[in-house]
Amino acid sequence: MTRLHVHTREIEPHRPATIARAVHFTLLRDGREEQLRNGAGVIYAPAAVGSDWRMQPQVLDDPRLTRRPKDWLLTVAISRTGEPEETSRRVGYRSQDLLEWDGPHPAAPFDESGTNTVDIDDATAAALEAKFGRIRSVAVDVDDSGPLSERGATIRYSDGSSRRAKVDWDAPALGRASGAIRIQDHAFPFIADRADPHILEYDGRWLFVATPDAGRGNEQTPELFIRAADTIEGLPAAPDHTIARVGDAGIGGCFWAPELHTIAGELRILFAPSIGTASWDGVQCHIMTLRPGGNPLDQGDWSAPAPVLTADGHPLRADERYGISLDMTYVPGDGGGHYVWSQRVVQDGYIGDAELWIAGVDPTDATRLRDEPRRLHTGRYSWELTDTNVVEGPFPLLSDDRLHLAYAAAAVGPHYATGWLSASTSDDPGDPSSWSVQPFPALDSASVPGQWGPGHISFFRHAGDTMMAFHAKIDPDETARHTGIRRVHWAHNGLPVLDMTPEEDLHPDLRVVTTLIEGPS
Predict the structure, then answer these.
(1) Same-domain check for residues 204 and 246
(2) Is 344 inside any structural domain?
């Protein structure tokens, strides 16, 4: 029999209340403890709306579980951060299977007789592990027929998922051949001192853009850089080329979060420079376009930086107050696709919540929106609001029937994390009601040891795999952020997995395989 223990964690220097005081799940069996979600929370407190209309994080305490005839009830104390414990109130969450939770429900009364540890059956424990545990390779099936050069392998994983992989075969001998399964294993950091990375294959070469993030600070960056290589492996050593400078179009600095996209058949670069002075509170989304047949490494082949404006030519802002815009990405689709970006009010000492916004792109002019911007997501869980109220860095990922949007949340640092928004491909992505949000992080500092504050993810295809580029810190207290890349795994439930290590992707004991050869190979 397995037991499920629900609990919060102690507050520590790199685990503040907004992360520690969430409901954590730990499986207890055979004298062992297995912390689900890498020891991070499963249920985080929803935010409250403050008197200044900014979201205020809340925290959870004293979770208790009760098995009822038709469902599970989890009751928990909730309070605003910084308020005394006696001001808390109890709320409840309901679940049919301990996997998906409905709540919180403020209505009373709730059953207060629950406990923090309950017995669960093996099937329920397995389902919890599949959703909240680590996914690992467990077996390999090797093709046993066909030409040797075409034989591959199927890697099977602990959650029931699988994937195909190529094999680099040695010369056969005595009717048998051995080979190594090919995997993508890139050490972290892949490129040091670069944040907000994006990689794109274009015209037979690999392009890399990012925010320089070392030394003098990224606000003072004087140029927008791009580099290119014939292979992914060649990017770390490739030289930088300047394609925009301070002074161009009134730019004073920053050059934040560049992304390369093909929009209306032309290569574009979206980025957020600071206008006038080199300051974070002056950044605005801009775009440049490569001329047909142009060289992406040649500044002369790019158009001058131009601001992305609303359909009627106004700056991107929620209302008449001044605001900043940054981290714009492009979601391909009918009618020109959509832009998604982060935006916040910054005026007269007031700093609003940084939120995600969405609008269609004018297919005839990529510098203009085709419709009214709509608020897509405001941080609503405690993990999104750690140290500051920020959601930013969106980037799309398409699966068979779902459009996923990764985004980053919280302050840049060890508490920075990655979340998911998701919509059906049959729904209108420009309608915020089409989207649902995952209530816990998809990637955080607990996910992969030695990678603190992982976020601002982008995706690309390489060697048949979906890959992600991201930034993280090696040390939680360092200033610089560094680029990493790794394969994205597709779980049995159809969701992307962002934290699979090379050892989990393919265990070293499974990497070398053999196959029998009959006749000429």
Answers:
(1) yes
(2) yes
